[in-house]
Amino acid sequence: MPWLFLLATLVGAIFTYNTVRPTYAGAHRAVISFFAGWITSELALHHILWQAIATAIFIWGGALAAWPGELALVITIVSWGVLGFEWSEGRHAGTTVERALRTAFGNDYASSIADDLAGRLTDDVDWRRIVLPFPIRRPTVQRIRNIRFARAAGVDLDLDVYKPRSGAADCPVLLQIHGGAWVVGTKDEQGLPLMMHMAERGWVCVSVNYRLSPHATFPDHLIDLKRALAWVRAHGREYGADPDFVVVTGGSAGGHLAALMALTMNDPEYQPGFEDVDTSLDACVPFYGVYDFANRNQLSHHGGQQDLLEKQVMKASVEEAPEAYDKASPVARLRTSAPPFLVIHGDRDTLVPVEEARRFVTEFRRQAHERIAYAEIPGAQHAFEIFPSLRTAGVVQAVARFLMYRYSAHLAARDRSRSASDSGSDATPRAPVASPAPL
Predict the structure, then answer these.
(1) pTM of this prediction?
(2) Which of 23, 202, 390, 399 could bridge 90 with an S-S bond, Cβ 3.0-4.6 Å?
């Protein structure tokens, strides 16, 4: 029993150590490090609980009768201390995002949020959802599933709408793009804490499926998402949305595609058959996104992503198709007319190097007229906000402030435009919305 206790303790300690010192080198090791670190760091208190139960059982069984058991107990206590620190570190995530917002938009940016919108914001932590993170749903949010918005290359494309159950009318829109390395994933799995949070506060959230590789070759993914935005423009009001205000978000591959959506607005190359539809966006919030397919600065820690892109997503190497790789890289698509961004990335991401986000932000500030906020979340792995946790709660609340801030600016501009129109002055409305042509 003492030796068994020591073995079990060492396994737990390895998981704990991985949260603090994850492995970046080697594609397979980085993926394993991600899964182990992600689950452990975001569910640190849950790990302490089950380990405490296991420790009590071992002690009851006589594990402390010999030195291996005593050593195991010491290791366990140290491991719990580290996990406790990791959990407490999550408390600072919201502060990190808030600091980034103030740096980008001014210390008093929150005072610009309309009073009725500011009243919907909260800093309270729902401990029940953190203790019991699954299933991720809210009784106040209605989810309308599997709405067909297009058919492309024989694939039916669906989306889900999340809206306030109490009713919705003229609600701002959050368009959510799932990740999964462009080859896996669905609209059902990601962005749920943020969408639930925003739907409770009067937003309509739209989670979208798109064609996946290797069936799809870039830019098929982007075209599908443009088609989804066209659907929002044409049909959003039927679900209580205001299609004149849309923000895009997504994580990982979804963060990459969200950034491209914002940087290729109204580009006819990605709107075949619906070139006249307005695909402009009011802001972009990419989480741990990929910003450079070409890896031109050699920021990637391993070649796993490049192999994936060449064999399944792009179907060509960088040397064979340099222009295609540039078109697929948000850092190469930056322009002066880019909308405001809030970029979020974990500083312990083993799948997408945080240096890639830093470089994107630097280039954005150099080239774009609008501002960009960058929040580097301490202790966060890839995909850290997929389910409720203390870190997720803080980040989601801060993102909500950014979204309300942007929507308040939109409402103020709309009111000024209406006032100018009423007084007989010329006003420049958003481009007329055209209905998307069928595929």
Answers:
(1) 0.93
(2) 390
